[in-house]
Structures
1.
Amino acid sequence: MEEIDLYDLLRFYAKKWLTIATFVMLGGIAGVAYTYFVQSPQYTSKATILLVGTNRTSSASDSVTLNNYVQLFTSRRVLEPVITEHDYNKGYDTLVANTTAQNTKNTDIINVSISTSDAKQSKALLEDGIQSFRKQARELYGDNTIKINIVDAASLPGQPTNVKPAMQIGLAVAAGFALGIISLFFMYDYRMSAGRRRRAQRQGDSSVVIEEPRSQATVAPLVDSAPLASEAPEGSQAVKKPRNKKSKKSKKQS
């Protein structure tokens, strides 16, 4: 890639503004189509659980117990009864991939959530998931001093959590603009390189001096002629012309 004149490049972009606008428009159309027609919305229902009875000032065993409760919420023992009750046809692997349980640091609070493509289904699954969690915890730990209380009940999501129209369409428009700029840049570079090659070729052709081949002088063929008497070689006699007898007779008669 050769050196590029920035001012000339900006002028080229200004002349091709319609092309850039076309790329921007196509990017916006692609963003709208993906956001509203291709992307599957996910609705997340959230709830907050408090474990009452853990003594965090004691040994680290309480922290282990808390982590056990967090992992228990996403176990098959808790979620499979929920799947069966609601006829959730996507199976455990899909549900656990859309289920979260996280402990808030230095607290006894567990934040849980379930996401599906239907807002009401997400709420119903989370509500039954909490009840199943309570039941399985009692069966596993027995009647102990830790109680599971609900701080925030399962919410009914009003908006999908994975669809953000303004951000997604804005990114698509920016991508279309960048694609247009890059495409025009390569087009500009190709044109400039081709123009330089043509100019260099024309200069090379004009500097070549074409020399016509010199015409060879034609030499007339030598005609063999009889040697003169003076040039006759030694030992040879000069040829004498016979005299005209008729001329002699005419002189005598006169």
2.
Amino acid sequence: MTAVLSAPVTTVRPTPAVVSAAIADRAPFIPALAPVVGADAQVPVAAGHRVGYANLDYAASAPALASVAAQVAGALGEYASVHRGAGHLSQVTTRRYEAARETVRGFVRGRVDDSVVFTRNTTDAINLAAHITPGDVVVLDIEHHANLLPWCAPKDGRNRARVVTARATIEDTLVAIEAELASEPASLLAVTAASNVTGEVLPISRLASIAHRHGARILVDAAQLVAHRPISIVSHGIDYLAFSGHKAYAPFGAGVLIGRSDWFDAADPYLAGGGATADVELGGEESSAGTTWHTGAARHEAGRRTCSAPCRSPRRAPRSPSWGRRPSASTNYGSANGSTPASPASTAYVPCRSSPIRRTASASPASPSTASPRGPWPNT
């Protein structure tokens, strides 16, 4: 016994090939629904060799579908400025950009008069929603930062976020939300459709019905949901929907906010700059400058357009046949249907080309020390 216990212990480390073979013998092969970029990536491990990468970060950013990446690469050869040129390639890119709005509208079954505004990502889309929303906003305390902090930021000199503490069950949470909305009028209820931490899916139609019953609209952060389940703005009674491409198997992070046009048109432009303006008039010493802003999506899309994702048609990742059904009013993942408030009259989208800059008759050319901050140069 002593000889056995004192014998040196030797460790035999199996080779990666042996380990891979053992795993392959035990685990059934599950083919990919569709090829994605980087599926064959090899990464280093502590032992010094490289192994196939198991990507567990899809909730943060999913890899691009290979077919989408190929289309984006193909479009680069015809890329030019959006709404900023008269040349053929500019016209091609502009048409693709505007067609992408309709693709997004169809993707989430939006209303025909909804505004579709492209943003940098979902967080930017929700910040845009906070910018255009008048009045108080009801939000849960379990929201992630992107759908919490924009509402908590002061607006018009006051904090307008009314934070509801989530209860132990969804039913009790719905009761708490309705009680808050009933206690005092609010403009908006902002919720996340699916949690990126727990995976819990909220009953969107029921939440929309509760909000509408108390005169509020509803914004849904669908970034975690659109890649996995069909969603319908019309059927589920959603007023505003935000999501981004990088969680739906598109490259990079372009986002979108789609919803009712009246709040978009009533709010000041999200960013001041070229593309958002229809006309700019520079005033002299006795007259002030005047700016006429576009209505519709162009009002909130100043500056250079992000075309890497919007200029190609976004596509869903393949899913099981049961996921492909068009959702009806009663299929809100087991929830009841909510009413949809009447749509306000929409304002037609005006293509956002560089707007003219004019001086008033009384204005004289400004010296460098007194020049307008915008300057007498074309919009950029």
